[in-house]
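Q: For a teaching session next week I want to show students how multiple molecules come together into a single three-dimensional assembly. I've collected the sequence lines for a complex. Could you give me the predicted C-alpha cells for the whole thing so I can convert them for display?
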Amino acid sequence: MEKTNRQSTIDNRQSSISAWLFDVYPSECGVTLWLIGLNGARMHFFRQFTPYFFLHLNTSDIKRAIALGARCPIPVSFKQTTHTEIYSGDSIDVLQVFVQDPMRFREVVWYYEKFFPHFVFFNSDVSVEQQFLYETQLFPLALGDYEMSGDGELLSWHLNDSREAVDYELPPFSIMQIRNSNDFVPPKYQKFLQLEISYDNRTYALEQDSPKELLEALNWHLYRCDPDIVVSDYGDAVLLPKLFSLSRKSNIPLLLNRDTTAKFGTTKESSFFQYGKIVHKDGAFTLAGRWHVDAHNSFTVAEADLDGLFEMTRLTQMCGQRQGRASIGTSMSSMQLSWAYRNNVLIPSKKREPEGFKSAATLLLADRGGLIFNPPLGYHEDVAELDFASMYPSIMVNNNVSPETINCRCCKNNAVPELGYTICEKRKGVVPETLRAVVAKRAHYKQMKKEFKGKNETLFKRYDCRQSALKWMLVSCFGYLGYKNARFGRIEAHESVNAFSRDIILTAKEIAENRGYRLLHGIIDCVWLKKPGATQNDYEELAREISARVGITISLEGIYNWILFPASKTDPMITTANHYVGWYKHGDLKMRGIEARRRDTPKFIKNMQKAMLDKMPTAKNVEEISTLVPEVLEVARGFISLLQSGRANPMELVLKRHITHEADEYVNNSISAVVSKMVEEMEVHLSAGESIEFIIIDQSGKKKPEKAKPIALYAFEDGYDIEQYTELALRAVETLLLPFGYDVERLKANFDINQPKRKRLPGHLKNQELPLFRIDI
Amino acid sequence: MNKTSSIFPGMHHHRYPSPPLSVELSGDAVPVRSEGMIRSFAEKPGKVFLLYGERPIFQLSMQMAAHAMADGNSLAVVDGCNRFDVHTLSRFARTRKIDPNKFLNHIFISRGFTCYQMEQAITHKLPSFLSTIHSHTALIFGLLDTFYDEQASLREVQQILQRLLVSFQKMKTTGASLLLVCLERTVAPPERNQLFATLKKGVDRVYKLDTNERGTLQLFLESQQTAAAVQFIARGETNYGTDGTNLHQPDRRGIVKLVKVSPRTAQRRSGSV
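A: Of course. Below is the structure for the complete assembly, covering every listed component.
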C-alpha cells in the first residue's frame, strides 16, 4: 500500500475516509485523534468532548458542590443523574461534574478533593482519552469509516471492526528503531552514546561530532521515514530524555512529535513492591501523533513483540504508548472500566470495599491457595502430564466469580465449595464478562498457531505473539482479584477461585485413581500421572472424562520417557513443587525451576546443565539413564575443568540481581551493596528495583574487598572467583545426579577439586595474550 | 528464646521474670501488670485503648481477647497489618483446654489492605457487625500500617484518621470497647509519624510494651486521658462533606452528632458549640 504524504489537507467540504484510529490525546477543545487511512494518509482531527466525574453527596453537600463550582478556576457544569453502585447493584443519585477544559481535568478533581472525602468520588481518576474511548466505544487500531467536517472536526464514524475480532487488518505501519550502537552495557552506564537509526531495512549511524549535526540528522531521518511507531531500547530512561536535553541546550527543535503543537509527555520513574519484591519502572517519554515504545520498558513488547502490543491495544482500548508501558493489571482494569462505562456502573476512585467479617474458623479454611501434591524424589519413567487449559480464568467465567457477585445480598446458594459463599445468579459479574473474550481469543490464537506451525513462519509468529500477550492477562487475572489496588477486586472472590480449583484437582485425582492411575505430582492446575502400560489414547480418554466432569478442558501435554523431581536444596530428603526436568516421548525437553531455567544462574552454568541434559534424550527409562551417568559426568567435568583453569569466558559468568535499596541505603556489605556503590561512584544512580549485572571476583571479600565488579567496570584481568563459580556448577550437577548418589562432596572428590583455587586469573596467563572469548551481545 | 511468655499471667518464661508487683514511675510512663490492663479492658464497656510497642503486643492482645471471650462472648477483629494468626489462636485455645473450633467460631475477622478499606471496615461495617454478634469488644490491628502507604496522600490519610477518631468515640458511646494494637514504627516520610501522635491523643489510654532497665519486657501505662480531652481531639470534621462511607444510606445527616463536653472544656474552645 502506497503511503501518501503526511497530514492530508482537508478542503472545506464534509468528507469521509476509511481508516484506522491510531492515536488519541486530550486537547483544549476535547480530544485530538490521528487516523491512518486505507490510502496510507496520516491525518488528525479534533472531536469536542467534555470529560466528567461523579460525586455522591447528600442534598446539602450537592448545593455546596455547586457553589464551589462557581469558585473553581476552571469552568465546570453539573447534572444530577443516577448510576449503578457495583456492589449493591442499587441505583444511586450522583452529581455529574463536567470539566470544560479537558487539559485541566485533574486540576478540577484536585480542587474538589480539598473539600470532599475520597469516598464520594467516582470516575475521577480515569484519564480524558480513556473516558473518550470508553464513552464512544472506539478503540485504537479500529478500522472504520470516519466522517469529518471541512474544519477538521470528526463528526461521526461507523466501525467495520470489533475488539473481539480475531482476524483483523492492521495499518501499514512505518516503524523506526532508535538504539545505542554499543549495547554491551545499558546506555545508562555509558557517558558517550552512538545512536543508530533503522528503518526500511537500513541502519544509519548518526554522526555526533556536534549536537547540531546529531539533531539535524535525526530530524532529517524523522522527516524521511515519518514513523508511526518509534521503537527504542532505553528510550524512556536515557535516549529520548538525553536528546531532548540536547535539543534545549543547543536550541535546535527535536521533531519527534508528529503533532508539532503538542509537547512531549514525561512521567517520573518509580520503585514499588510487587509480589513481595521491589521493582523499578522507568519514567515514560511519550509523543503526540506517534507511538514511542521502549522495548526495555514494556512488558507487553518484551513478552509478545509488537503483534502482542497491537492485540492488547485493541482489546484494552488503551493507546499504544499507554498500553506499551502498562502492567497487566492496568490492562485488565481498562477492560473492566470500559465495561463499567457501557453498563452505567460507577467507578470508585479508591478501592475501599473491605473483606466481610468471617469467623476465624472460616478464615482458616478460606485463606489457602491451590492444592499441591509433592512429588516423590528422583527419576520416574512413563509419566504423563495433563494440564487444565486456563483453569483459573475458566473458573471465574464458568462460575460467575466476581467481586460483586460473591456473597451478594439477593441469592443464597452456598455455591463455593468448602467455604459456602454465595454467588449471584441474577447478575453477570464484571470479571467473567471481561475475561470471556480473552479466554475465547486466546484459544483461537493457540489453535491458529498450531495450524501454521511449520507452514507459515510469519503467521505462526503473529499468532504466537497474540496468544502470548493474552496469556499474561489470564495468568494475572486471578492474583489481581486479590490485589489491594485492583479497582474491582475482592478477597472473597480470590478465595472462591482457590476453593474451586482445589475441588477440581481433587475431582481429577479421584477420577484418575478410580481408573487405576497413580497421581505422582499435582500443582494447582496440572497433574502428573502414571499407570504401567497406559497409552496416549488411555490418557486422552482420561482427560476427556475429567473435562466432562469438571467443565474445564484438561489435555495431555505429553508422556515423558523420564522425569526428574530433584531434591530441595535445603532438605535433600524432600522435593520442591514446580521443580522438574524431563524428556517427552515426542522429543521435547521440559524443565522448570532448575538452574538451567533460572534467571539468576550464570550462562556458563546454564550451558553446562543443558549440555548434560542433552546427553540424556535417548534414555527410554531410568535404567538407561543410569548407564549414561558416566558420560554426563564427563560433560560436567569438561565445564568445571574450564572453570577451574580460569579460562572460562567471564561474560558467561555474569550474574544479574535486582537491588532492594539505593546505594547509600545499604547497611551491610553484601555483593549487591558493594556493586551498587561502585556503580554510584561511576555517577550512575540506580533506584531500588533496578538490576545490576556483575561478576564475582572474590565472594569472601578477604583478598579483594570489592567482592564483585559490575560489568561496566570489569576488565578481563580481574579474573573471577573460581571457588564460588565451581560451587555453583557443582550444585547444578548435583541437581541432576543426586538420585545416583552424586552430592557436592562426592562430585568434588570425583573431579579432584578439594583444593581451594586461586581467586584471580592464573599467574601464567597474566603475561600472555588474554584468551580469546567469543562475546555474545 | 521466647520473649513473649513473661508478659502473660501464668506463662512466665524462666529467663524473663514476671513484671514487678510494685508500681515504679519511669518518666511519664507507669509500669503496670498485664493482668491489670486485661482486667480494666474487660471490666466496663465503652473505652478505647491503644497498645503499642514490641512485637509480642499481638499475643498480649490475644490474651485480652480470650478474657473478653471468657463467658462465651464473641469478638471482632479488624486487621490492617495481616498479623492475625489463626494457627496461634488455635494453639492458644488448646493450651487452655478450650475447644479450638468453638473458640475460632467466636472470633470474626475482616482484613483491610488499604487505608480506605480500613476506614470502611471500622466506620461502617464494624458497628453493625458488633450488634449482629451481640458483642461490645473489637480489636484493631495495625490501624496505621496502611496509612503509611505513599499512594495515599498525607492530607487524605490525616482526614481518614480524623474521621476514624470520631467513629471510635461514637462506638464508645454505644458501649463498644476497642483495643488498637500496633507496632512502634518510625516511617520514612517523617511527616507521617505525626499520625501516630494524633492517634495516641484520640484514645482513652495508651499502653506501651517496652524493654525495661533489666532487659525484660514490661508493660507501661503511657498516658490516660479524660473523656473530654479525647472528644476534643476527636471532634473531627463531621460536617466535612459526607461523613459515612455507606453508600446505601440515602441521607447521613443524622449521623452528624455534637459531642457533649464539660462546661470548662467548652469555655476553653474558641467558637465552642
